[in-house]
């Protein structure tokens, strides 16, 4: 009975439908203004406060690699976000994520049961070499989600673009996406190789996360 009511209440959401179509057609979706200007400011302030309190750690890539090798692969600093201890900004963030996840599970039977998100800071001169988000042997990662928290003065000359690699008709195509405030990029974690180009003369702020099965 409750299922019947669920169906009656179901309202198609044009934004989520676009994301689903994009994922089916091209394995990634770019949504500008997924987060409002206010939400971006609140999240950036939250990130910066924690960064200044030195809560961030150098990002790792599994435990087989020493610091020098890690540095040649990625140079960002990260801080995992605990939903149970979320502040006001993070609560709003998770509300949007959970709403979208619920819709995806319901309409696409994605079976997303878990999620993990971290803040990331890329200081000047850092990058993240081309990779697949499942390289740590974690095939539970289904969708990767990146949201940019830079301010409105971010310029293309700052670099730090996300480049997504795809094969089209046997030829590799590279799509560059600038880390503009409020912009979200969602992509198939197990299918799309990508990289973060070197950040020039700026600090690059974001939240990255994964929607996971099992
Ligand atoms: O920040 C980005 O644009 C992508 C980050 C990324 O690829 C990762 O953390 O795995
Ligand atoms: Fe990645």
Automatic annotation (TrEMBL):
Keywords assigned by UniProt, alphabetized: Dioxygenase, Iron, Metal-binding, Oxidoreductase, Vitamin C
Coiled-coil region: none
Listed InterPro entries: HIF_prolyl_hydroxylases, Oxoglu/Fe-dep_dioxygenase_dom, Pro_4_hyd_alph, Pro_4_hyd_alph_FE2OG_OXY
Cofactors that this protein relies on: L-ascorbate
Record-linked Gene3D superfamilies: q2cbj1_9rhob like domain
Domain Fe2OG dioxygenase, chain residue ranges per copy: 108-213
PANTHER family (UniProt xref): EGL NINE HOMOLOG-RELATED (PTHR12907), HIF PROLYL HYDROXYLASE, ISOFORM C (PTHR12907:SF26)
Protein name: 2OG-Fe(II) oxygenase
């Amino acid at each position: 009975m409750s299922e019947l009511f669920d169906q009656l209440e179901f309202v198609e959401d044009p934004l989520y439908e676009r994301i689903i179509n994009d994922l089916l057609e091209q394995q990634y979706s770019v949504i500008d203004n997924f987060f409002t200007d206010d939400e971006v400011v609140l999240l950036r302030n939250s990130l910066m406060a924690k960064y200044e309190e030195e809560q961030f750690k150098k990002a790792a890539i599994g435990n087989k690699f020493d610091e020098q090798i890690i540095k040649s692969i990625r140079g960002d600093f990260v801080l995992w976000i605990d939903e149970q201890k979320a502040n006001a900004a993070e609560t709003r963030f998770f509300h949007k994520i959970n709403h979208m996840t619920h819709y995806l599970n319901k309409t696409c039977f994605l079976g997303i049961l878990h999620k993990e998100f971290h803040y990331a800071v890329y200081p000047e001169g850092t990058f993240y070499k081309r990779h697949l988000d499942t390289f740590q042997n974690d095939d539970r990662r289904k969708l990767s989600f990146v949201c940019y928290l830079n301010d409105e003065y971010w310029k293309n000359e700052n670099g730090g673009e996300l480049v997504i690699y795809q094969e089209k008709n046997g030829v590799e195509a590279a799509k560059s996406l600038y880390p503009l405030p409020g912009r979200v990029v969602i992509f198939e974690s197990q299918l799309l190789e990508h990289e973060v180009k070197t950040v020039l003369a700026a600090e690059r702020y974001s939240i990255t996360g994964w929607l996971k099965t099992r």
